Amino acid sequence: MSAMNAANADVLVAGAGIGGLTAALSLHAAGIGVRVIEPVQVLRPVGVGINLLPHAVRELTELGLGEQLAATGVATAQMVHYDRHGNRIWGEPRGHALGYHWPQYSIHRGALQMILLDAVRERLGERAVVTGTSFVRCAETEGQLLRVILRDMARGREHAVRVRALIGADGLYSTVRARLHPGEGPPLWNGIRMWRGVAEWDPVLGGRTVAIAGSNAHAKLVVYPISGEAERRGRALLNWVAEVRFPVEHGAISGAADWNRTGRLSDVLPYFAGWRIGDLDVPALLAATRRILEYPMVDREPLPRWGRGPVTLLGDAAHPMYPVGSNGGSQAVLDARVLARSLAVNDPDRVAGLRAYEEVRREATAALVLANRRMPADRLLQVVAERAPEGFDRVEDVLTPEELAELDAAYRWTTGTDVAELNGRGSWGVCRP
Question: What's the pTM value of the predicted model, to 2 decimals?
Answer without folding.
Answer: 0.94
